[in-house]
Design goal:
alpha+beta, 2,3-Dihydroxybiphenyl 1,2-Dioxygenase, domain 1, 8-stranded mixed sheet, 3 helices, 8 strands, EC 5.1.99.-, MeMalonyl-CoA_epimerase, isomerase, MMCE/EMCE_epimerase
């Protein structure tokens, strides 16, 4: 299974405050901006491309969202690292056979056609890792 860095999710208090750095300093381009109201997600998202890499700025939509709790506990900064795979089901199966645990309730397809699941941070020494694939590939 090949794992390719897909994007980095960054927790921010305000996308509007954070966005100028990524656009004006890193010369990124804003590819998309949307809100995910999915229970357990609840974030505003700004998708920024810098050359061949993607950064997702993630702003909580309410004070009880998982993103708001993350910022309260750990502060702003890197929230997760996402790796793209060709076959998400196969990647989950292969990793599970190697003892990797997943946060099963995070398996979903987002509104942009990305199918994803998060690896339990206990399996990654504390880093939240997303595995994803795209329906339009």
């Amino acid at each position: 299974m090949e794992y390719v860095l897909d994007h980095v999710g960054i927790a921010v208090r305000s996308i509007d405050d954070a966005l100028p750095f990524y656009l004006n300093v890193l010369n990124g381009s804003l590819e998309d901006r949307y809100t995910s109201d999915t229970p357990g997600v609840e974030v505003h998202v700004a998708v920024v491309r810098t050359n061949d890499k993607v950064i997702e700025l993630l702003e909580p939509t309410n004070k009880n969202s998982p993103m708001a709790r993350f910022i309260k506990q750990r502060g702003k900064g890197v929230y997760h690292i996402a790796y793209r795979v060709d076959d998400l089901d196969k990647a989950i199966l292969e990793a599970s056979k190697k003892g990797v645990r997943f946060l099963e309730d995070t398996l979903r397809t987002n509104t942009r056609g990305r199918r994803l699941i998060y690896v339990n941070p206990a399996s990654t020494d504390g880093t939240l890792i997303e595995l994803c694939s795209y329906l339009n590939n």
